[in-house]
Design brief:
Elements: H1 8-39, H2 44-54, H3 57-68, H4 73-83, H5 86-98, H6 103-112, H7 115-127, H8 136-164, H9 173-183, H10 190-205, H11 213-248
């Protein structure tokens, strides 16, 4: 059976293929989360539920650590909320492309929205803006479904492996290593570096705060510093452009 360009099936398959290299890189993190969740005292079924319902790696890592530390539920919710605030930016970026979709599609794609799915989907939307390419939400669906499946399977395998690991191995250090591996590649400009430095400094200074509230303070501080510096860069760029235009005129 032949298909015309930009059919739903072709978009879905294209999303699967584009996301596959990234999905392979997600597998180790799913394995680590499964092992770490058990080490933090999270029951296996609850760890699986976190991966299927929350479906947000960084929030799950932090949530598992806070659960293991006996942190109150409200603090856990607030901390994971702050960590996932970036998804609001992703949603705002994709909203103009999704506004024509029925609510059921919007809810489904919102659930499947992750850093990796957004990265590939926004590139797809920017590549081809022709009217006939009206099935691109299936591309988004392909990226999200693949990531969701890989995350569930890798988490389940990690949980199984975690039950085989002796308690005396003390695997808590894997959380710090995981976040170092996630953060360092993203530090590509001054706002990102300053944001990470500010968050790290505040985290150290507030380490003794009760209920792990220092994590919330560190996250908010990093966001604040990053936003301020990015706005400053935009202002300088706009001012330079205006001065250059005046010189040309």
């Amino acid at each position: 059976m032949s298909f015309s360009p930009f059919t739903a099936r072709q978009e879905f398959v294209a999303g699967l293929k584009a996301e596959m290299p990234i999905a392979l890189g997600v597998i180790p993190f799913g394995l680590i989360f499964g092992v770490l969740a058990l080490a933090a005292g999270v029951p296996p079924l609850l760890a699986l539920a976190m991966s299927s319902l929350v479906f947000a790696g960084s929030a799950q890592f932090i949530g598992a650590q806070l659960i293991g530390a006996g942190t109150p539920g409200l603090v856990i919710v607030l901390t994971t909320f702050v960590v996932n605030l970036r998804h609001a930016l992703y949603s705002s970026s994709l909203a103009p492309q999704m506004k024509h979709l029925p609510r059921r599609w919007q809810f489904l794609l919102a659930y499947l929205l992750t850093d990796e799915a957004y990265a590939m989907t926004i590139i797809r939307y920017q590549q081809d803006k022709r009217d006939e390419a009206n099935q691109k939400h299936y591309y988004f669906l392909g990226t999200g479904v693949l990531l969701w499946t890989v995350w569930q399977v890798s988490t389940a395998v990690g949980i199984f492996l975690g039950t085989q690991v002796p308690p005396g191995w003390q695997l808590d250090f894997t959380l710090a290593l995981t976040f170092i591996g996630l953060v360092v590649p993203t530090l590509k400009d001054k706002p990102h570096v300053a944001s990470a430095a500010a968050a790290a400094m505040v985290a150290v200074l507030t380490f003794s705060w009760p209920y792990k509230l220092g994590l919330v303070a560190a996250a908010l501080s990093g966001i604040f510093v990053g936003v301020i510096l990015e706005q400053g860069q935009r202002f300088q760029a706009g001012l330079s452009a205006a001065l250059l235009q005046e010189e040309v005129e």
